[in-house]
Amino acid sequence: MYHSWLDRWDEQRARRGEEGKKTTDFVLDAERAFPRAKKMASIEEFCVLADQAVADPAFFDEPSGSD
Is pLDDT at 65 greater than 70 in this prediction? Predict the structure, then answer.
């Protein structure tokens, strides 16, 4: 009995949580992932930057104090 009550409570809580969510526009912000990048116009440009980052082992080093 306790478990069925807990399940119902959990479902109600999940429904209330879903009601508060809003759909937002997707933004591909290359500046977050690649600080020196210019504005990206397409996913292809973003993928090129990602491929360059993967090929450069120094890309994943910790930034120096001036960065």
Answer: no
Q: What is the chain's length?
A: 67
Against a cut of 0.90, is the pTM above it? no
The residue to which tokens 């119902």 are assigned:
8
* Spatial CA neighbour of 49 closest among 29, 27, 25, 63: 29
- 49 exposure class (CB count in 10 Å sphere: 0-12, 13-18, 19+): middle
d(CA 7, CA 5): 5
Characterize 14-48 residue by residue with b for buried, 16 or more Cβ atoms within 10 angstroms of its Cβ, and e for exposed. Answer: eeeeeeeeeeeeeeeebeeebeeeeebeeeeebee
**What tokens were used for 14?**
């999940």
